[in-house]
Description:
Residues 1-56 are annotated as: Disordered. Pfam families: DUF3176 (PF11374). The chain crosses the membrane at residues 70-90, 167-187, 540-560. The chain is α+β, with helices and mostly antiparallel strands. The protein is built from 16 helices and 26 strands. The strands form 7 sheets. Strands 2, 8, 12, 13, 14, 17, 18, 21, 22 and 24 form a 10-stranded antiparallel sheet that branches. Strand 5 (217-219) and strand 6 form a beta hairpin.
Amino acid sequence: MDDNHELRDLEVQSPEHDREHLLGDNHEESPPIADQPPPPDKAPTQRVQPPSRHQQLRSRWRSIAWKAEVSSWIASASCFIALVIALRVFDGHPLPQLKFGITPSAIVQILSTLGEFFLEISYGAGVGQLKWLNALQKKPLADFHTIDEASRGAWGSVVLIASRRGGLVAALGAFITIVALGIGTFVQQALNYDTIYTASGGNALMPIAQYMNGVGSAPIDHGGTIDGVDSVLTSAPYLAFFNPPGTNFTATAHCSTGNCTWSSYQTLGFCNTCKNLTRQLKRDKIRIVPHKLTDEAYETNVYTLPNGFGLTGIQPGEMNNKVDFSITNGVVNVSTTIAPERWDSVAFPHNGSVLLSAFAVAAAPGTIPEQPDQTKFSPDEMVGDMYAAPVAFECMLQFCVRNMSAIFVNGTLRETVTSVWTNETQGLLPQYEHYTFRPPHSEEFRVLGTSKDSTADWLNFLLVGSAYSSDVDSLGFAASSDLMQIVRIAMNSSEAGFPDLMDNLANSLSLSLRSASYQPSPIHGKAFSPISHAVVTWEWLILPAFELVASLVFLVIVMMRTRKAGLVPWTNNILAVFFHGFDQRPVIHGVDESETAMEKESDGLLVQFQAREEGGRIVNVNS
């Protein structure tokens, strides 16, 4: 029985018993709550914050493909727009005074350089991406290399176009790269500066002549003088004859800015009008008996105008020791209408404003006047290439009113005679009266009678003279005065020699008269100050605009092809070549591993970019 009790104690307890045992006796008193230790503190749960909007946008931006290229194109377009705005602001305006001495050209250059820099990033990346797109098909490795070189500069682009690799899109990118070299030059040509002249408050004074009063005297032969001649005129004939033909005798004007204009003004002066009378010369043969020596008599030609003035050929000189005499051959003879002989005018017989007319009969340029047989001096007739008929002119000096305009530019004055007015019906006046000249709608100009007569006498003294040669067959000569020597040189050099001298004389006398102290105050013109202003030639911006549009079109084409092919835009990233290049290095036949050898080997090595789980690789597909 006891053993049974022990076995009963060893029996497995029921589940309920076990549960009651784990839970304890309900009838037992639980210890007081205060005696139980408090439960340990739990660590606070970390609450995950959602990403901010800024972080989300930044994450999305980093995941956007072509962000650098698109941003670069936008930056380039912004520079171009800023360039156009700057040129529009500068166009037609004076040169601005900017801080630090910055010029508009510098601003244009900076914007052009920045725009070109950003644009190069855009189209360069597009060309670089084409090598990966091209590698999707079986192509020689040389194509990959050529396109890569084209993405790095103009020379590689030239090689790409010349080798015809990469297709039309690659050729477009290469063309854009090459043309981009001209952007800077074209932009610089768009901005130029012209100088304009704006009216300023400066002084512009031009002397004029309104009167001729004959204040002073002029020297004549043997220390004598002629009263009633303005002293300011005395140097004019010498300035006229000793200056080249067509000399521009201009006044001494005052222009405070160095750039002035006088649109129209009038001044009293002298005008010259010449007429060629050669056809009216009459040749006669005369017999000369020198010094009553009948056995020395000879014949010579004399050339005369209708008024009797002319040129005599061979003339006898003074006797030498009462044994022999020299001869001279006339080559120039000059006289006036108020000479003692009172030669009548041939070409201008009825002109009332004439001061005097000067006649000149002289040998034609480079010749000697023809003469008959000279039994005493030469058995041959004086004819041939060296001998010719003389020429004759009448030049009339008269008072006139000159209508003129003038321009003073950069310190140089240039006057222009626009028209002249003469009073050809002016009659003779008493000695102390005035010759008056009143052009239509103009003030009155006056010449004192005594001044007119005295000036004519003085000019007659200067202009009457001759020149001759001592040998009948020589161009050498002697002259009666310094002025006659100039006349001979001028008429021997040019058919218009004498008219040119008389033109110079009229212009020189007119200029000198304007400096007389009794003349009215100088007339006022307009003074201008030079200002540089910008001129923009917009056509020069066609090339930069074309580059901008063409690069955008090119970039969009490359982006679309990349997306369609499912490629990542690696462009020119060298890391892509390392991560997605050959699994196994291609073998170069031979031991030469130079650049040339690699390029030659790449022509025959077909490669293709094949997609794989790790992102794809370039594989050799020759085998």
